[in-house]
UniProtKB/TrEMBL annotation:
GO terms for biological process: mitotic cytokinesis; mitotic spindle midzone assembly; Rho protein signal transduction. The lineage of its organism: Eukaryota, Metazoa, Chordata, Craniata, Vertebrata. This is RGAP1 protein. It comes from the Eukaryota. Pfam families: RhoGAP. PANTHER family: RAC GTPASE-ACTIVATING PROTEIN 1.
């Protein structure tokens, strides 16, 4: 190992200079000592993937549109099924250990994902979704388009800002664009639920750092401080766009968004 990477079985990092085992089909990486606990079957990836625990969004997306990772579909479906009456959805944290365990289960599952209905606390499901999005190598809006999203949200005229945002969204990689659209439609449902008490302002504060992030993987403390309010502003602006705009990206193949 040259660059320290997490073991897909135990989750702890495999340190520099240590020997590891990697599957040539699914790229699963693990400690040599964890070999016995490794799943016996793997799912070969239809296109290039990095590691099951880390990569850009396209590495987790299906091969047919809409290009939304199954983990995202599974979590959103579960939240919409039984979470829209829960106060503080996405703001109240789930148990950290359970979030890590379920994220690992879902990422290791390959084809058919384990049912999230067995997770009693819906906040854990919310935590898995947020942790997955935070763990990507670059944020959903991508490093290269990050400045354009901030500039578009800063335009004082609402109509001009919306037009600029639509243009930048259309420039996203297909998987990022489809997943962003899917998430925006979901968050709009959450914001409209009186029981959740999570309006657009609250949701933008939660998802600003997660979806927008920064323009590089290693931002300076000053950049972090300056970006935080602008991240929230971007998400709030995105949530102000009409649902019909977002549906245009995901409704063409809606039947493919049924969780497996």
């Amino acid at each position: 190992v040259i660059r320290p990477e997490p073991c897909c079985v135990c989750g702890s990092r495999i340190r520099f200079g240590k020997t590891a085992i990697k599957c040539c089909q699914c790229q699963l990486l693990l400690h040599t000592k964890c070999r016995e606990q490794c799943p016996s079957l793997c799912t070969p990836r239809p296109h290039h993937h990095v590691r099951p625990h880390e990569g850009v969004l396209a590495d987790f997306a299906p091969s047919t549109p809409p290009l939304v990772p199954m983990l995202v579909v599974q979590c959103v479906t579960e939240v919409e099924t039984r979470g829209l009456t829960e106060t503080g959805l996405y703001r109240v944290p789930g148990a950290e250990q359970l979030v890590r365990e379920w994220k690992r289960k879902l990422l290791r599952a390959g084809g058919a994902l384990p049912a999230l209905s067995s997770v009693s606390d819906i906040h854990v499901v919310c935590g898995v979704l947020k942790d997955f999005l935070r763990g990507l190598k670059e944020p959903l809006v991508t490093f290269s388009l990050h400045p354009a999203f901030l500039r578009a949200a800063d335009i004082p005229d609402d109509v001009a800002s919306d037009t600029a945002l639509r243009h930048v969204v259309s420039k996203l990689p297909p998987a990022n664009r489809d997943t962003l659209a899917f998430l925006m439609l979901h968050l709009l449902k959450v914001s409209h639920s009186p029981d959740c008490k999570m309006d657009v302002f609250n949701l933008s504060r939660v998802f600003g750092p997660t979806l927008v992030g920064h323009s590089s993987a290693n931002p300076t403390p000053l950049t972090i401080m300056e970006d935080t309010p602008r991240q929230c502003k971007v998400v709030a602006r995105l949530l102000s766009l009409p649902p019909i705009f977002w549906r245009g990206f995901v409704e063409t193949e809606q039947e493919n968004l049924v969780p497996m």
